[in-house]
Amino acid sequence: ANQYIERLMDDLNGGARTDSSADAINKGLSLFKKASVFASASVVVQQPSALARAFAYINPKYFVTAVNPTKYKSLWNEIKQYAPVAVIKEMGYFDTGIGRSSVDWIKGNKNLMDKVDDALSKAPAIADELAWSHIWLAVKREIKTTTNLKEGSEEFLKKVGERFTEVITNTHVYNSVLSRSGMMRSKDTGMKMATAFMAEPTTTVNMMVDAILQGKRGNKKFLA
Predict the structure, then answer these.
(1) What's the per-residue H, E or C state across 11-49?
(2) What's the helix, strand, coil split of the chain in %, to 5?
(3) In a 3-state reduction of DSSP, which class is residue 118?
């Protein structure tokens, strides 16, 4: 436990450094991931499937209405305003380990390859944004039903943002130190190769373990 906490603190403070000789391999691994998922129809289709994991935290009845694909952008901007985890998601694309650096994103630096990446990742990114927007609407319905807050008020939207962030951090994938397991944060080239496509499975396994532990503590509903 002590080693895990020390490693996490080190990673949070940017202490993880790679051997410069591994740069070429790491670059190749990043290109391999992009080649595997960019412009892939199967990836686009799979993105909304992550909605099912949110059912563990939100009653499925709140998901009755789908998001209008042609009018979701204003909704997405609202999400980013009240749930900054969506900004982190946008920075890192729809999969971990393939986005630009924070510095480049803040400065708006884009070379030709970055623009190509944006174009090829557009479809799965939109599918992901639609899925998150669907969860946002579900959380809005939940908060409207379970609180006395006035719908659309600042207090209401802040509450929705807090609840949405809770659901996302427990059920979805985004590119952050806090959303990755210790193995996935490893800078070892072999470990990076082994965990290259393991963000979604890792989240699912963590949810299963959490459910079993809560079940043992008496929360049979969550276990189910």
Answers:
(1) HHCCCCCCCHHHHHHHHHHHHHHHHHHCCCHHHHHHHHH
(2) 70, 0, 30
(3) helix
Contact 34, 117 (CB under 8 A): yes
pLDDT value, residue 98: 46
Name the packing angle between helices 122-146 and 112-120 (round to 10°). 60
Between CA 69 and CA 198 the distance in angstroms is: 28
Place of tokens 């403070």: 13
CA separation, residue 108 to residues 83, 88, 122, 187 (Å): 21, 15, 17, 26
The CA distance from 207 to 213, in Å, is 10
What are the tokens at 143? Answer: 């908060």
CA distance 212 to 223: 6
**Residue (of 58, 92, 109, 55) closest to 178 by Cα position:** 92
Which residues lie closer than 8 Å to 175 by C-beta, 6 or more apart? 88, 89, 91, 92, 93, 96, 97, 99
- Identify which of 14, 135, 156 has the alpha carbon closest to the alpha carbon of residue 75: 135
pTM above 0.85, yes or no: no
pLDDT tens digits, one per residue of 96-114:
454 556 666 666 666 666 6
Cα(17)–Cα(4) distance, integer angstroms = 17
